[in-house]
């Protein structure tokens, strides 16, 4: 079983609001997944890296050449609020 | 503070000077009108895919090498998720567990060695300005390549933290990977600071002071914060792990938010980018093309016999160092060059009348000037006039001497005529000299120099005056 606190923490990180009873169900589901992972840990996987990607290809790089992109009207045309050439957002002074 | 020791680690951010942004082709250019350099990728529009800039990766590798780091064989990008209006995608492409460089070491001038934990590549956020009606956002900076250099908590004082940061900036300048302009925010730092009883090895909860863009602010903020924490411990309290800002006008740090843990950022491997291999041969090519670093310059200049103050002044600037080197290659003597570069030319530079990066005259001319001085073709005061002229108009020492009429007067009889003229005009001084007052000799020599605009060597003037008065 997954701990109750863990589910609440994951819900907060995922910005999920859990309805009545949902946390219990998720706890059971998560518990089953973790049990399965525990079983996999018995395998000798020390030399096997994490599989983040299924493709073996390596990322290609781009030459450092600049070109202009979008005009300000095209780029910010659908913005909810503007102030001249700027995007306007509600004031937030957390870092001030 | 004497009963507490300070433990500081620094995260230095350096904007890279590439032509284009890190993951799109938008120009990376400071100072353009707001939202000029934007495209679907750096605005995070649906369906847009990033593509890494090879020059950004190379710059990160070069910095890692300059800091003595191991360069990874394979590296990858990760998503750091957080919500803020200057981050249009809702996440920053950064590096979590496979940074480009790790485990380096840097020498801090006047301090100890500082371990480098990691050198990672990421993208900058846009710029948010707070205004009366809300906040306005400019995305020109969003996606600009950013290096993050994380030190171990090896710094033991605010002064050492500052010296370390200055050295990192000098290294970036020497590598030419950033313009490192403080006033444009190209170099910024977050500092982690905790204190502990002297002799203790335990690490107490640390406070992070975020986003400082001036060496002076950093030093002041750390001095204040160490004092604040000491006061809390003295009163039996506990310091909480948190993020604080620095209010320079008030001279205090202030609480911003409780510190995030890595999990708050919900990191995961960037699904839009594949891992990339770093070719060993390419790394070795980059290593062999590294320029001389500031620490190497300092050692070399000290070895050449320059005084420490001149060593510091010359070594901190790529322009001054290359000017010095070129003039020395042309035959200039090191200590004399040091005097001129930190003296007359340094003053002209401070006045904005000379630029070592783009000098108005070739460094070889400084060597030529020293030669003319040494061979007696030019007097000291004349040389100063020549330097002024070269800094202003460029050209050669030879031409400047001719144009200014500063060539040393070779004709001894012509000099003697000038000396006689001076003595005629200064009967009192002449009488004093005849009466044995040797101290007026300096005055008379000065008068001869003035009449001849420095074209007579002082010792020649002095000898002829003595002859004229029959001494």
3D architecture notes:
The complex is a heterodimer of chains A (96) and B (471). Chain A has a domain at 4-40: Histone, subunit A. Helices cover 35% and strands 6% of the residues of chain A. Chain A is built from 3 helices and 2 strands. In chain A, β1 and β2 form a beta hairpin. Chain A is flat. The longest helix of chain B is centred in the middle third of the chain and has 20 residues, at 215-234. Chain B is an alpha+beta fold. Chain B has helices at 54-66, 158-175, 215-234, 280-288, 294-303, 308-315, 318-329, 334-342, 344-350, 363-374, 380-393, 397-404, 412-425, 427-434, 440-451, 458-468, and strands spanning 4-15, 70-71, 74-75, 78-81, 91-94, 101-107, 113-123, 127-131, 134-138, 145-151, 187-197, 207-212, 242-247, 252-258, 268-269, 276-277. Chain B is elongated, with a radius of gyration of 30 Å. In chain B, β12, α3 and β13 form a beta-alpha-beta unit. Classes of the chains: A mainly alpha (96), B alpha+beta (471). At the A-B interface, α3 and β2 of A face α1, β8, β9 and β16 of B.
Annotation keywords:
A: 96 residues, mainly alpha, two-stranded antiparallel sheet, 6% strand, B: 471 residues, alpha+beta, Arc Repressor Mutant, subunit A, nine-stranded mixed β-sheet, 16 strands, 39% helix, elongated
């Amino acid at each position: 079983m997954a701990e109750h606190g863990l589910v609440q923490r994951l819900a907060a990180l995922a910005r999920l609001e859990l309805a009545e009873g949902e946390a219990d169900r998720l706890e059971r589901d998560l518990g089953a997944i973790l049990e399965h992972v525990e079983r996999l840990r018995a395998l000798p996987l020390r030399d096997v890296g994490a599989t983040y990607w299924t493709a073996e290809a390596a990322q290609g790089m781009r030459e450092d050449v600049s070109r202009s992109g979008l005009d300000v009207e095209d780029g910010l045309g659908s913005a909810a609020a503007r102030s001249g050439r700027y995007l306007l957002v509600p004031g937030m002074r957390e870092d001030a | 503070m004497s009963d507490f020791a300070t433990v500081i680690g620094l995260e230095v951010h350096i904007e890279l000077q590439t032509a284009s942004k890190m993951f799109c082709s938008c120009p990376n250019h400071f100072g353009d009108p707001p939202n000029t350099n934007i495209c679907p990728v750096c605005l995070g529009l649906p369906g847009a895919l990033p593509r890494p800039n090879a020059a950004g990766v190379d710059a990160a590798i070069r910095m890692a090498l300059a800091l003595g780091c191991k360069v990874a064989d394979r590296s990858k990008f990760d998503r750091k998720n957080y919500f803020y209006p200057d981050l249009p995608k809702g996440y920053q492409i950064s590096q979590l567990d496979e940074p480009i460089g790790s485990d380096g070491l840097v020498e801090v001038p006047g301090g100890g060695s500082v371990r480098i934990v990691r050198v990672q590549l990421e993208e900058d956020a846009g710029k948010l300005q707070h205004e009366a009606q809300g906040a306005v956002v400019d995305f020109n900076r969003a996606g600009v390549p950013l290096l993050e250099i994380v030190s171990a908590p090896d710094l033991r004082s605010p002064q050492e933290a500052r010296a370390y940061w200055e050295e990192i900036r000098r290294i970036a300048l020497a590598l030419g990977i950033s313009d490192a302009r403080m006033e444009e925010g190209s170099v910024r730092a977050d500092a982690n600071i905790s204190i502990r009883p002297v002799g203790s090895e335990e690490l107490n909860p640390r406070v992070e002071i975020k986003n400082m863009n001036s060496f002076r602010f950093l030093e002041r903020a750390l001095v204040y914060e160490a004092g604040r924490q000491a006061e809390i411990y003295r009163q039996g309290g506990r310091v909480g792990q948190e993020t604080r800002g620095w209010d320079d006008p008030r001279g205090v740090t202030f609480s911003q938010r409780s510190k995030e843990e890595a999990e708050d950022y919900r990191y995961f491997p960037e699904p839009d980018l594949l891992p990339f291999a770093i070719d060993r041969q390419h790394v070795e090519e980059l290593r062999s093309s590294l320029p001389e670093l500031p620490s190497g310059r300092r050692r070399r200049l000290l070895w050449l016999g320059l005084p420490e103050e001149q060593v510091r002044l010359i070594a901190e600037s790529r322009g001054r160092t290359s000017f010095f080197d070129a003039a020395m290659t042309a035959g200039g003597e090191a200590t004399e060059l040091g005097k001129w570069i930190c003296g007359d030319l340094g003053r002209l530079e401070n006045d904005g009348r000379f630029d070592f990066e783009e000098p108005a005259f070739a460094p070889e001319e400084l060597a030529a000037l020293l030669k003319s001085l040494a061979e007696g073709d030019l007097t000291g005061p004349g040389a100063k006039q020549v330097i002024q002229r070269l800094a202003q108009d460029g050209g050669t020492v030879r031409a400047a001497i001719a144009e200014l009429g500063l060539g040393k007067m070779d004709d001894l009889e012509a000099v003697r005529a000038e000396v006689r003229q001076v003595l005629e005009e200064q009967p009192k001084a002449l009488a004093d000299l005849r009466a044995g007052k040797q101290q007026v000799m300096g005055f008379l020599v000065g008068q001869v120099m003035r009449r001849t605009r420095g074209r007579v060597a002082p010792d020649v003037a002095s000898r002829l005056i003595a002859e004229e008065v029959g001494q």
